[in-house]
Amino acid sequence: MPDEPTSHRDFAVLYRATLYPLRRYLTRLLGNPSEAQDVAHDAYMRVYPVMSRQPPDRPAALLYTAARRLAINRLKRRSISPVSREELRPESAASSTPGVAQQVMARQELDLLEQSIAQLPEGCRVVLLLRKIEQLSHREIADRLGIAVSTVEKQHARALRLLRAAMERKLDS
Q: pTM for this one?
């Protein structure tokens, strides 16, 4: 697939441009930020294979349509069965899922991480995202960006160092 790198790049651009607006839109529809995040994730998972095969003319419209349909289906399921069968089982009463406070803290840390990544120098941010999100090797990143592998290694190390420092500062304050 000669267009694969382009489709990955197009998807990454779509993801960065739509992540927060899509979550806000879905939160308004569903009334629950956690459900909105789940539906957004599912929508991205549905759009990615489509973009890999044939890049659509309007990828954001495709994403929002998929997200809206998923949200509507979730709302329908919620109205049909407001209490799940899982919640009715006695063994589910002592759940190992994190409590509300832990979930809120985890979301706040994720938001801090996303803000810290956005503030990285562009070269470091691009290398970090290619490495961690697209899971490319240093060699693949170097080939894609047309830079030396040693430069990729240095930018990756610098990105991790800057992120660690930024997160420590933000979590300590």
A: 0.45
